[in-house]
Structure formats: structure tokens, C-alpha cells
Amino acid sequence: MISRFQVQNFAVFQKLDWTQHAGINVIVGKNDTGKSHLLKLLYALVKSIEEFSRGPSPKNWIAVLQQKLTWTFQSDSLSDMISRGMDRAFAELLVNQETCSLAISKPIESNLTEILTEGTNPRKELSAVFIPPKELLTAFEAIAATRERLEIFGFDDTYYDLIKALRLPTTKGKIDEHLLRVLRSLEAMFGGEIAKGRDDGQFVFHCNGQVFQMAQTAEGIKKLGILTTLIRNRTLTKGSILFLD
């Protein structure tokens, strides 16, 4: 999947060359050292490739990436992502043996927008899912309304993309055997199942013949329930890249 990730002058990272990627990668550090920024940048790159490859319009990948960066980092100006005192940020990702790169430059004049360049349209399909730190099942509709009706910053694309994925219905079809074992283990762990209610479509927790609303359900169960839902509706499949913040 991801083989190499290079960053220069992005947020707190003046230079990063990450080459040793495995099936599971863990980023550890103190608070406010850029862990979430790094995950979000990786996600924005991979997710924009997914949306570009599956989208109906022949839009340039850079245009898709620019929108994804704007809504993932909740910033009107992409140049805000450049490290303080620098004029240009650069990132390059090698994923599925294909290189994707971008450069963000500060505007030369104050009335010009920043420049986002150096992208080449990727050809291979990807699948990415980001589980953000805050629980969202309880505030599901409020988050959706913030983006779909108000179109204002508040919940970034890691939340909104996850909402769209959770909305997908559970379809009949074979779940990969490895993921099926994970699904059974997770549901056995919390002794029940997170599912949409039949009447209003809100998520509820079924346990021991009882039905609990999300506000009555423990945070850990809701987090695990997100994973089981994504496996059941086959958003998470073999080959998906899963980001956990």
C-alpha cells in the first residue's frame, strides 16, 4: 500500500522521510507534536485519489485534493499549512507503486490565492477510512447538517466522510473471511450489535434483547460499533487503508 511518505515544511514538520511502512503503523508522541496533522495529510492525499478515481467528472486530481485539504484542515487558505517562516510546503506519497506529489506555495501578492501544483492524475483506485478521536454516532445528524445545509467549518472531512460511509446500507454479499473473524470478535467483545433503527434510521445498540439509544451507550462500544458497521456495509474491505486517530 503506502511505501514512502515525504514531507517538507508542512506544519511542524520541516523534513520527514518515512520509508519503513508495514501493515500496521503506530505514530506515538506528546500532545501538540503534529500526529493528527500527519494522519490528516496522509488521509487527504489517499482519499482525494479515491474520490478522483471514482468520481463521474474528468476533474483534475489537484482540484479534488485542494477541496479535500480545505475541508480536512478547516482553513480558507492552504498556505496556512506551510511551516512558519517558509514559503513553500511539499509532500510526496508512494502508494501502490504510484507516486503522487503536491506543492503549496504562498501567494506572491496579497490579493492572489496560494498555488497548489505538481500533481499528476493518479490512475489506481484506493479506499481510505478515517476514524477521528471524537465519537460521532450521538451527534450524527447535527454533523451532517453542519456540512450539508450550512456548509460551514466545524466538523472536518474526517467526520463527514465517515458519516457518508456509515449511511451506506448493509448489502448482501460475501465479507472477506479475515474481516468476518474481526467482526465476530468485536461484537462478541461488547456483547451486542450497533445498527440503524427501523423507524427513524438512528443508530441504536442491541444487547441481550434490549435496545439502547446512542446517548445511553458507552463510548468504547460506539467506537467499536463504527468498525463493525463499516465491515458490514463493506466500506472496509481487503486492501482498505484505515486511519485511527
Structure at a glance:
The protein has 245 residues and is of the alpha+beta class. Helices cover 33% and strands 22% of the residues.
Draw up the topology in text.
Layout: E1 2-10, E2 13-18, H1 35-54, H2 61-73, E3 88-95, E4 98-105, E5 115-117, E6 128-131, H3 140-148, H4 157-167, H5 177-190, E7 193-196, E8 203-207, E9 210-213, H6 219-232, E10 241-244
Parallel strand pairs: 6-10
Antiparallel strand pairs: 1-2, 1-3, 3-4, 4-5, 7-8, 8-9
Q: Specify the number of helices.
A: 6
Q: What letter string, H or E per element, gives the SSE order?
A: EEHHEEEEHHHEEEHE
Task: Work out the strand percent.
Answer: 15-25%
What kind of sheet is the major sheet? 5 strands, antiparallel
Mean pLDDT metric: 85
What spatial form do the alpha-carbon principal axes imply?
Answer: globular
Distance between the termini: 19 Å
Decide which structural class fits the backbone. Answer: alpha+beta
* Radius of gyration computed on alpha carbons: 19 Å
State the helicity in percent bands. 25-40%
Uncertain stretches of 5 or more adjacent residues = none
Q: What is the tally of beta strands?
A: 10
What's the arrangement of strands in the largest beta sheet?
2-1-3-4-5
